[in-house]
UniProtKB/TrEMBL annotation:
Gene: Bud23
GO cellular component, as recorded: cytoplasm; nucleolus
Quaternary state and interactors: Heterodimer with TRMT112; this heterodimerization is necessary for the metabolic stability and activity of the catalytic subunit BUD23. Interacts with GRIP1.
Similarity-based family: Belongs to the class I-like SAM-binding methyltransferase superfamily. BUD23/WBSCR22 family.
Residues in Methyltransferase type domain copies: 30-106
Compartment(s) where it occurs, according to its Swiss-Prot or TrEMBL record: Cytoplasm; Nucleus
MF (Gene Ontology): rRNA (guanine) methyltransferase activity
Reaction equation(s) it catalyzes: a guanosine in 18S rRNA + S-adenosyl-L-methionine = an N(7)-methylguanosine in 18S rRNA + S-adenosyl-L-homocysteine
Every 18S rRNA (guanine(1575)-N(7))-methyltransferase Bud23 C-terminal domain range: 176-251
Bias (Basic and acidic residues): 236-245
Protein name in UniProt: 18S rRNA (guanine-N(7))-methyltransferase
UniProt key word Phosphoprotein: no
């Protein structure tokens, strides 16, 4: 719809703005989860070249029908970014990265897929460049998992939140730096009524609550079990009702 296209264009504009690209030359950008190429249209309008990756053949077919100017690649970014080191001057992604947190197949491990994505993305980006990933996290645990894997892959940076006090206008942008870390951009609408600014989340060198990258502390927790049961209910499968005992560990028997 025209409304969706308008929102996509606005978020693409904001993502490219956060990249901080040089104004004196065109750049080559990677669009992760490019879909039908709406984000790529804005990149082309700004005079840059782009390559889009998406897992959906149907969405890429729409992009071909629209005759977008960028090159398209059918690929699952959870398998990694298949480009040579230093290929891109920047990367954007609109509403795509959070899908890597879903285990759509039995063989899928969200922490491993996220690390594979971020580590290969880090390699594919030129030193000193940025990646700006707009996402819709389901909860704080999912957001923490994504940022922890990005930090483990070598990125620095942090989360830029636009309009943090608004329910509808609130947007999360994970702004990542390759190589030397830069100054984290300020989110839009972050000034309070008294003129003070809302503090933004930043990366530190401290370990996150996830004990290791294999997700040992994520799996089998109460939240993980409840999310899995809810996902199965949406798939129409028969699932036991939630109780106060859900996710509790049983005592060892003698």
């Amino acid at each position: 719809s025209s409304r969706v296209a308008e929102i996509q264009a606005q978020m693409s504009e904001r993502a490219v703005e956060l990249l901080g690209l040089p104004e004196d030359r065109p750049c080559l950008l990677l669009d992760v989860g490019c879909g039908s190429g709406l984000s790529g249209d804005y990149i082309s309008e700004e005079g840059h070249c782009w390559i889009g990756m998406d897992i959906s053949p149907a969405m890429l077919d729409v992009a071909l029908e629209r005759e977008v100017e960028g090159d398209l690649l059918l690929a699952d970014v959870g398998h990694g970014i298949p480009f040579r080191p230093g290929t891109f001057d920047g990367c954007i992604s609109i509403s795509a990265v959070q899908w890597l947190c879903n285990a759509d197949k039995k063989s899928h491990s969200p922490p491993k897929r996220l690390y594979r994505f971020f580590s290969t993305l880090y390699t594919a980006l030129a030193r000193g460049s940025r990646a700006v990933l707009q996402l819709y996290p389901e909860n704080s645990e999912q957001l923490e998992l994504i940022t922890a894997q990005a930090m483990r892959a070598g990125f620095t940076g942090g989360m830029v939140v636009d309009y943090p006090n608004s329910t509808k206008a609130k947007k999360f942008f994970l702004c990542l730096f390759v190589g030397a870390s830069g100054t984290l951009p300020k989110g839009l609408g972050t000034e309070c009524a008294d003129g003070e600014e809302v503090h933004q989340a930043k990366f530190t060198n401290e370990r996150m609550r996830f004990r290791n990258a294999k997700g040992k502390s994520v799996k089998k927790s109460r939240d993980w079990i409840l999310e899995k049961k809810e996902r199965r209910r949406r798939q129409g499968k028969e699932v036991r009702a939630d109780t106060k005992y859900t996710g509790r560990k049983r005592r060892p028997r003698f």
